[in-house]
Amino acid sequence: MGNGWHNDAMGSGWWVLMVVGMLVFLTVFVIGAVVLVRHSSQPPSGPGGSNSGIDILQQRFARGEISEEEYTRTLALLRGQS
User: Fold this and answer.
1) Are residues 6 and 27 in the same domain?
2) 34-61: per-residue pLDDT in tens?
3) Among 10, 22, 24, 64, which lies 20 to 30 A Cα-Cα from 47?
4) Rg (CA), the chain
5) Where are the beta strands (DSSP E) in 12-75?
6) Contact, 54 vs 75, CB < 8 A?
């Protein structure tokens, strides 16, 4: 017969399984928190965001990569004016 905590047929190794389970849980929790913080701190993109077509067009025009004629023509296209 056993006494106290050691009277089960499985032995006394359950604490090892519990420690491993806790480490796995904490690892998943920390990785999830890091991914969530990184995802929420990214600047918005798309319409109205910092990478919209009009913003890119304005940057290219400011750097002198396109002419004024090409700028106005492309701006009208992006705004839906033909």
Assistant:
1) yes
2) 999 988 876 655 555 556 889 999 999 9
3) 64
4) 30
5) none
6) yes
**Residues near 5 by beta carbon (within 8 Å), at least 6 away in sequence:** 12
Angle, to 10 degrees, between the axis of helix 53-62 and the axis of helix 68-78?
170
> 25-46 in b/e burial notation, b at 16+ Cβ within 10 A?
eeeeeeeeeeeeeeeeeeeeee
- DSSP annotation of 80 reads T
Same domain as 56, residue 23: no
**12 lies in which domain range?**
1-42
Phi-psi region of 80 (alpha: psi -120 to 50; beta: other; left: phi over 0): left
**Per-residue confidence (pLDDT) for residue 6, from 0 to 100:** 56
Residue 13 in tokens: 């190794």
* 68 shares a domain with 38: no
Q: How many domains does the chain have?
A: 2
